[in-house]
Amino acid sequence: MEPLIDSILSKSPFYSLTHLLIVVSALILGLLAYKRSPHNPNNKSFLALNLSLALWATITYLSNLTKLQIETQIILNRLTFTTGFILVIALFNFCIVFPERNTDKPFIFRIVLISSAMLAIFAGSVDWLQLEQVTKETVTFKPANQIIFQMFFFAYALFSFWALAILYSKLKKLKGKKHTKVQYIFLAFLLFVIYVFATNLIPAFFGERFFIGHTAFGSLIFIGLASYAVIKHRLMDIRLVVIRSAAYTVLAVIGVAAYILVVFYLKKYYEQLVNPDLVFIAASFAVAFGFKPLGSLVQKRTDKIFSKGRYDFDDLLKQLSNILSVHLLLENLAKFLLSTLSENMKISKSAFVTKDDYQYSKGLILSQKVISKITTIAQPNKALVADELEDDSAKKRLMTDLGIEVLVFFPDPEEEMAGFLALSEKHSGDAYTLQDLRLLEIVAPQITIALKNIEQQKKVIEQIVEERRRIDQDAHDHIYNRLGALAKKAEVAELYPEEAKATCGLIKNDLRSTVSDLQKIVHDRSDEEKGNLYPIEELKKICEDFEAYSSIMLSFECSYADLAIADPKHLWHLQCILEECLNNVRKHSKATRVAVGIKKDNGAIVLEVKDDGVGIDTEKQKQKTKNGHQGLKGMRERAKKINAKLTISSNNGKGTAIMVKAPI
Q1: Which of 191, 212, 231 marks a domain boundary?
Q2: How many distinct structural domains can be found in the chain?
Q3: What is the pTM of this model?
Q4: Are 149 and 143 in contact (CB under 8 A)?
């Protein structure tokens, strides 16, 4: 154990820490992928690949420890080739499985598996390496038989590039998101294989010394690119990550160099004038407080140069908030919201759905059955991302079948949700980043508020429309008829001057009554009077006014004179219905007689109006309704408001009977 510790301590900290980083990163990435979806063949093969990579990097590191016994170093160097073949098997397996989760291994995989396993056993068990040179700092080895190493070389080359060819053939066929994943994996493997061959296998093939100890550094390239494609850090485009990393590295180097230069310069040339302690303190403060602003500047510049296709988070959030606060029509809100998101996030298809089954789609049309299924998997306050779900879960299958990458639900404290956004993959095939998801999760509650505002606005508009319709209907049924009767009375006053005084008195009383009713209509004060009302006199007066100023004979019969109505609105609507009935008789029926009857029937008041006129032509009545005549339609609506049943019986040439049965 002591030689091992001495050997580790003798290596440079950079070398040891780099290998430690490779091993730990590979283990973490593989375990994270497996934990995310243990039953996914992609994740299992990725775990196997990273475990073999960590094992290979560990053996490679140990094989370069020069203070171990020579026999131990020879064994470790042979084991490097053994673990290399294990890594080749894992690589080949991953290239076959990824990304289609293909579990059916072809015959060629069995050939590779058997051949690599035999070569791995041979490389680890046969004594084919011998000592070449021992110096104070290094110990090198060479093959005892060059043919053996050449066999290893061709096997590595054949199996590695064969795996890359399989992956490249998939890359050519795939599109969208899968294409992007395979693209990064292919690039990771290609660079890794090239690095391994360039630093170790090719020089050794031509008889040069081995560089096994440095070969593992190529794993960093693989880990960086493969982790982005499989684990999905969801940060940003990988190119920007690399550029930013390089930029921050340069920044750190510049900061350290500037610090050393300033301190050295002042100490050397101005030591007599400047206190060295003050120089160190001032320089430390300059680095501490200047690094962050300089870092922000570098970040903005790299974003501007290498992220032209991305959006400004704050600016897009401001745009979306403005859309949600300005648009009070649901269709406009959904249209502009999806258009803005699609344009900035480069989303190919999307849908905006509310709990009331309203749907606005941009290429992603969801059936009512599908919407019902989606509502059952609602996840408030957090976006549901298909890539983060277990592969065997119902949620994952549903989203995958529909082509949905992200579901964002609108949280509603009163209900489970107010609706949701369904977003498909991006045009570029890139995954949704943490920035994307954070923006969507911030906007979701704002959408809920906007929907409630729209709903409230809709109710207000409906109330206004209903109020206007009520006034129009009440004026039609009550005021217009009264004014018509007043006109008739004025005509009587002109024809019979001797009765003009009495007629004017009637006109004056009727005008006051009409004004009072008009105030009730406009201000909806028909229910101001409380307590039981006795409608018989009110209804009888309407009949008397009709008979007085019409040539049609009217008979009024009431079998229950003490009938009382508790709700004043019922009396109001009954009056309007009776007035409209008599008005229709006068205008359209050509009747000579009309009978009005009032009776009580099982706790209800029954109003019946019969005439001997020409009856109602159904087709003509439909046409009148289309042209804005609301007589019969208005009566039906009034009957509905007081829970009354209205029945109309009519035959051409045989008169009309209208009956209203309303609860008392």
Answers
A1: 231
A2: 4
A3: 0.51
A4: yes
Distances (CA, A) of 337 to 360, 408, 422, 434, 452: 10, 13, 12, 20, 16
Average pLDDT over residues 4-9: 74
* Residues whose CB falls within 8 Å of the CB of residue 388, separated by 6 or more in sequence, listed in order: 36, 232
Q: What is each CA distance from 40 to 100, 166, 168, 569, 613, in whole angstroms?
A: 10, 20, 22, 69, 83
Question: Which CATH number belongs to the domain containing residue 196 in this structure?
Answer: 1.20.1070.10
Shared domain check, 371 and 352:
yes
Residue 342: its pLDDT value, please? 92
Given a cut of 80, is residue 290 above it in pLDDT? no
The pLDDT of residue 234 is above 50 = no
Rounded CA gap, 87 and 452, in Å?
Answer: 58
Distance CA 63, CA 213 (A): 7
Q: How far apart, in whole angstroms, are the C-alpha atoms of residue 529 and residue 517?
A: 13
The residues, any chain, with a CB within 8 Å of residue 408's CB and separated by 6 or more, are: 383, 384, 420, 421, 423, 440, 441, 443, 444
Q: How far is CA 383 from the centre of its chain?
A: 7
Residues 217, 247, single domain; the answer is: no
Question: Residue 57: left (phi > 0), alpha (psi -120 to 50), or beta?
Answer: alpha
Degrees (nearest 5) of the Cα angle 415, 421, 425? Answer: 150
CATH of the domain at 629: 3.30.565.10
Range of the domain at 119: 2-231
What number is the average pLDDT over the span 330-354? 93
Q: Distance from CA of residue 154 to its chain's centroid?
A: 51
506 lies in some domain? no
